[in-house]
Specification:
seven-stranded parallel beta sheet; 23% helix; alpha/beta; five-stranded mixed beta sheet; 6 helices
């Protein structure tokens, strides 16, 4: 591969910006320095950034798709869109609106796509479900996973996804969720869990930290606990501690945020 050099650019580093910098690269980055401190080989292809900024590619761990397309249905088109807009790494989100067969089809679509040639952004899955609390933003009337957690069912799902799953979003209050977490961790020791669409109390959440619960899915969105005194949604000014409070209090758990424009 021919060597290339991005010149006339401001390079965003981890803790500072290199003004009027140069990036020398072929298949990987070779060197990054200020213009006056880097000698560009004569045969290098020059890319003039015209004073714009060059940054690392963005990483999006929770993404459903774009432009009306689901990533698990059209991974090639969605990947192309994100590469064009500066996102180089994504986790494909599959969530509660599909039944088991839908999950399995989505997993197979992505698995097959990852074997194809060409640039793409996808490195695995962020499973938003299926075992969440349908009372909290998970379509309680049409949710396909309101039935009890079944070992036969989750084994098929976990075995199909294998080590492609990076994150499972769960509601810790669901009966049988610990058994699911234990099996998912056996199949994929590196997988992490995220509390989301949940009304779990702190002790329920902290109990699952030993399985790798390290994240909350969109904090303060589709979560909470209503005190029994407020069950009829009367303004009583009381709210129990739920996922939001548990995560904000615990330095081991990240709070994922929805950043709307």
């Amino acid at each position: 591969m021919n060597m290339k050099a991005i010149v006339n650019t401001n390079i965003v580093m981890e803790d500072h910006i290199i003004l009027d910098g140069v990036i020398l690269f072929d298949e990987t980055i070779i060197e990054i320095k200020e213009k006056d401190n880097l000698e560009i080989p004569q045969n290098a292809e020059i890319i003039d950034a015209r004073g714009n900024y060059t940054t690392p590619g963005f990483i999006d761990i929770h993404n459903h798709g774009c432009d009306g397309m689901w990533m698990f249905e059209k991974p090639k088109e969605v990947s192309a869109h994100f590469l064009e807009h500066g996102t180089t790494t994504t986790l494909c989100n599959i969530f509660y609106n599909m039944d088991l067969e839908g999950y399995l089809r989505g997993i197979e679509t992505i698995r097959s796509f990852l074997k194809s040639e060409g640039p793409h952004t996808i490195i695995g899955f962020y499973m938003e479900g299926p075992y969440m609390n349908s009372k909290y933003g998970a379509d309680s009337k049409n949710n396909k996973w309101n039935h009890p957690i079944s070992e036969d069912e989750y084994r098929k799902l976990v075995d199909s996804a294998g080590d492609l799953v990076k994150v499972w979003c769960i509601a810790p209050e669901r009966e049988g969720i610990e058994e699911f977490c234990r099996y998912a961790r056996e199949v994929n020791p590196d997988v992490l869990f995220s509390v989301g669409h949940s009304e779990a109390k702190p002790d329920m959440i902290y109990k699952l930290k030993k399985y790798g619960l390290r994240n909350q899915t969109h904090i303060m969105n589709a979560t909470g606990i209503v005190n029994p005194l407020c069950a009829e949604n009367k303004p009583c000014g009381i709210r129990d501690c739920g996922p939001d409070e548990a995560v904000l209090y615990d330095n081991d758990i990240y709070a994922e945020m929805i950043v709307d424009k």
